[in-house]
Please model this.
Amino acid sequence: MNQVSHQSVPLIQVEKLCKQFTVRKHHLGTLAFMRNLFSLQVRVIKAVDDVSFSIQPGEIVGYIGPNGAGKSTTIKILTGLLVPSGGDVRVDGYLPWRDRIAYVRRIGVVFGQRTTLWWDLPVIESFELLRHVYSIPNTRFQQNLAEFRRILELDEFLDTPVRSLSLGQRMRADLCAALLHEPKLLFLDEPTIGLDVVAKERIRQFILHINKQRQVTVLLTTHDLSDVEKLCERVMILDQGRLLFDGDINHLILRFGGQRRLVVDFVENYPLIQVEGAHVLSRNGFQVTFQFDRQSVTASELIGRLSLQYRIGDLQVLEPDIEETVRNIYEQGLLYDHE
Amino acid sequence: MLRSLSLYWRLVGVQIRAQLQYRTNFWFDVITAGMMTIISFGSLALIIQRFGSIAGWSLAELAFLYGMVEAAFGVMDMLFSGFDPGTFGRQVRLGLLDQLMLRPVDVVLQIFSSDLALRRLGRITQGAFVFILAIYWLDISWTLPKVLYLPLVFFSMVCFFGGLFVIGSAVTFWTVDSIEVMNIFTYGGAEMMSYPMNIYSNWMRRVFTYIIPAIFLNYYPALFFLDKPDPFGMPSVVYWLSPVVGFCTLWLGLSFFSFGLRNYQSTGT
Amino acid sequence: MRLFFELAWRAFQRQMAYRSAAFAGLMTNFFFSLLRVAVMVALYQGRIEVAGVDLRQATTYTGLVQAVIGFLSIFGWYDLMNNVYSGAIAADLLKPMSLYKFWLAQDAGRAIAQLLLRGIPLMAAYALFVGVIVPTNAIQWLAFMVSLVMAWLVSFSFRFLLNLTSFWSPNSLGISRFGYMLVWFLSGFMFPLRFFPGWFVTFCQLTPFPSMVNTVNEAFLGMVDGPALLKSLAVQGLWLGMLILLGQWVLQKGIRRLVVLGG
Model:
């Protein structure tokens, strides 16, 4: 799936990374402003706590965790936006925050929540500006642009100002913009958030494509486990600033993503519903939710067994969400896992 | 350096085109934005006949001071619009700074080129108009040093006000919302410099000589241009301090801003 | 009537919440006042009185001008126009109150808050650092307060009209700015109108603007009394009436237009 190079020098090397924020707690109530002048309660938040990992060129790595886990903070440090409180970070030989201008030239970044393009400009003009900002030779620029236009189907809105784009269109434009200068490393922060299934698929295909064709290393943070499943062989899980898991994704799912759910809308209101391999979690009229273990039965087997006995109208397979998986991991007391 | 300049032009060009899109609004803004200059000066011109002069400065001489300040402030306001503390404070608050830091271009340059408020042209042209009127009325004996020094003084004032703007923006790294006292320095400073320094009480004048040396920016040069005597008996070197004050303020502002930016990187507000 | 007070009270509370911003504004006002006083003193250059105004009155005048900036929204008021452009005007029009009264109530709250936060403190600072003269007898005080309320009403009615242009034009901001400039120029905001040449003063009196600033300041300073005072109050009232009528007429037309466009 991924093109992993077997060089020994990692592209990203993170060692004992720490980042803490001091938050001043303001006093409230009467004479608060006086008390604030003299004493401020200080609270130290450890956003990133002793995190270490390394990423080889060519990998696509998922970086997941619940909200507030410290993902954005890590990404900001890796992209040079933030200076760490402790630890060592080397990306492609650079210290991101110190060698900012030289370093940033070599990476691409896409934020799901914000665009990197100029708000009022037509997309193509934003691209043109970026060509000058990154000093991309024109021939290379045109070639890359042509390829991305084709794959991401940008032509329909190339002349539209960025502010008028739909979320899916904007993400595609942002992706193109992030790769025009041929970076070796791409940071994606929630790239599929808010998108419909078709749009998500398109983005994922594109990411796989550039990884395969151009050996672009990808670090992807997301809330969507399917993103991770479809794209990454390796996943890192962060919670409360600590790295809880770093390893093969199949391993992760097998060990912790145990309980799946099957929601079935039956055609009739069967009084008793039983099936081997799963137990009934809840019933709601014609709808029944089953819970089953991934390791003991596959979804298709289960569906097969059910359809032999009952008439099924509609069904849905629900994966355990990331919060559940992480909670499982945390409850198991697992802090760090070597491959 | 050249690349920075060409990038600046390209990015600014984007802004200019965006502003010109709203054509009627734009022209309206240009006219109304500058009217305060004319109204202010016009009012003074209308009432001065009852008073003759202000502290020994005729209307034409006042126009000289006033026009230069207005035009310089307008130019600064236009070039440094990206650094307008109110605008910048908002950018910091919304985290738009991250977008700039992810591009391989100097952040300060990007902020400079992020806005060029063409509507300031109103204040600039009206200030220039008053100034030219002054030159026409007055009978200045133009020597070569005067001719060479005049644009330098103008430029120094632009740098001075610009430096104040940059300082005001840098402060928002810590306070997030721009502090009002900066407005007193910038807009208040401009207003204060529009009149001859000898109308202000001693303590006020000392503040503007030793704390914020605005007195050297246009008052002393004006004495030089208009061949007026120095009522305070300062050493003759002060006539040439205008560029020093201007550039130092700008340099101070930019240094402070860089410091603020580095601090922003550590605290990630 | 109760709705009026409630709206005004809520607007008052909203303004009072921006205390720190008001304080900052007060600082700026005070600084500019000091500059204006310096200019005035320099203008007088030892003269006892000019055009019937003595130095004390002139310097107090500059203070009064700065004090009413917040009270009268001299530098512009765009709330109604913003509501029109954002579409929130629909909610306003559904209220059981004429649009004029609706906004008048809110402006009342705002104005009183500004008076308390900026206007009065500024005059107090003036009294401390510059020295002011104040009305000498009860009648003068009364006349001043009546004039102040009138000035506010006239100012609001004018601002209301300016904002109404948004019902027709997307350039209401620019139009309004032009209107506010007229206020600065013709109301006695820059200097007491008495300093200006006769033809200019005559021209100003053809507009409602002196009724916003100059008239109320002169009432405070006791520069007019007896019949002249009554006359200036009457003039204020006259302009107020005209502006209200004009406002109502324009409002009706505007609402009809808005409804027709369904916007």
